[in-house]
Design a protein that fits this description.
Number of helices: 9
Number of strands: 13
Helix content: 40-55%
CATH class of the largest domain: Alpha Beta
CATH topology of the largest domain: Tetrahydropterin Synthase, Chain A
Strand order of the largest sheet: 4-3-2-6
Largest sheet: 4 strands, mixed
CATH superfamily of the largest domain: Band 7 domain
Oligomer: single chain
């Protein structure tokens, strides 16, 4: 029986279509950002992972030998084959994924309420275990939400507020500004306080806060990451790290905290100004003392010089009087006239008395 040409063309087209469907259904590619699991009638037959370290491959092979014997393991991107229609392909992301959920209320050990907003970075480490336990990224996010906030609440509940907001173990407390003042020193005391002293007298004791070893935000988050990593390993998930994005006080408490912080800053600034005023008065007093000392020394030197000059002048006058007594009396008479007379005064002089020198011929008066 001959097949009509038109039916023969249709049959050829159907065969070509089936061959194309089989070809494209049999071959598939996995790129650098993907990993996959191949199921046959619902059972895993092959696992394809991305680039892994030799240690990670060895760990994955050990797990599969114990929990999925007979399942083949491949790694790296490339072209792969599966039986069309009989085997199903499940592709997962091989990149680092981000978990970020809404803030949650937690309570610290010192009874402080915080709104903590955290995030985490994670990846699918074991795609077969991930498929068997959570199956999708959305379901994995729900599991991470329960695990991360459970561990975070537990760790924060063991720590005080200052351990969460500070990253260093250095002591902190009000009054550290006294380090700027040269003549004020402080030393640690056994009760964790700072005693500021001046001239041997304790003027104030300031309570210092020192974060104990094993505390601080970085240490807390490291413990949270380790605990979360252990708890999520049963889902084939590897948690890279957990971080706190924000840790805010509830809105009802923020204004009271800000007011207290403002009052504390004002108190410290007042102490700054008081310390500066005290230092200014000290410097001014020392300067005045130095000025008085310099003035006294200068005045004493001036009086000494003046006394020496007067003594020298008196000696010169005495020598001049002894050498020329007539001239000296004449000069004294002129000075006396100059002191007692104005420009329009007239003087009537006798030939005796203090002005006798004018009526005596020069050189005859003794």
């Amino acid at each position: 029986m001959r097949i009509p040409p038109k039916f023969k063309g249709c049959l050829t087209g159907v065969v070509v279509l089936i061959v194309v469907m089989i070809f494209f259904g049999a071959f598939f590619t996995i790129n650098e950002k993907q990993q996959a699991v191949i199921l046959q009638l619902g059972k895993p037959v092959r696992v394809i992972v991305g680039n892994r370290t030799p240690e990670e491959i060895a760990e994955l092979e050990l797990w599969m030998a114990e929990n999925a014997p007979g399942v083949a393991l491949s790694s790296g991107a490339g072209l792969y084959f599966k039986i069309p229609f009989l085997q199903q392909l499940h592709v997962f992301d091989d990149r680092i994924l981000e978990y970020d959920d809404d803030p949650s209320d937690v309570v610290t050990r010192d009874k402080k309420h915080l709104q903590v907003d955290c995030y985490a970075r994670w990846r699918i480490q074991n795609p077969l275990l991930f498929l068997q336990s959570v199956q999708s990224v959305y379901a994995a996010s729900s599991r991470l939400d329960d695990v991360i906030y459970s561990v975070l609440r537990q760790e924060i509940g063991r720590s005080d507020l200052i351990h969460i907001v500070r990253n260093t173990n250095d002591p902190v407390g009000i009054g550290e500004y006294v380090r700027l003042v040269n003549n004020v020193t402080y030393s640690d005391t056994t009760d964790g306080s700072i005693a500021m002293t001046e001239s041997g007298e304790v003027i104030e004791t300031i309570r210092m806060i020192r974060i104990p070893p094993g505390q601080g935000r970085e240490v807390i988050l490291s413990r949270v990451t380790e605990a979360t990593r252990l708890m999520t390993a049963q889902y084939g998930i590897y948690v890279v790290d957990v971080r706190i994005k924000r840790a805010d006080l509830p809105i009802a408490n923020q204004q009271a905290v800000f007011t207290r912080m403002q009052a504390e800053r004002n108190r410290i600034s007042t102490r700054y100004r008081a310390e500066g005023h005290r230092m200014a008065q000290t410097i001014l007093a020392e300067t005045n003392l130095r000025v008085d000392s310099i003035s006294s020394l200068a005045e004493r030197s001036a009086l000494r010089i003046q006394g020496t000059a007067d003594s020298t002048a008196a000696a010169i006058y005495a020598d001049a009087y002894e050498s020329y007594p007539d001239f000296y009396r004449f000069m004294q008479s002129l000075e006396t006239l100059d002191n007692i007379m104005d420009a329009n005064d007239e003087v009537v002089l006798g030939t005796t008395g203090i002005f006798q020198y004018f009526a005596t011929p020069p050189g005859s008066m003794r």
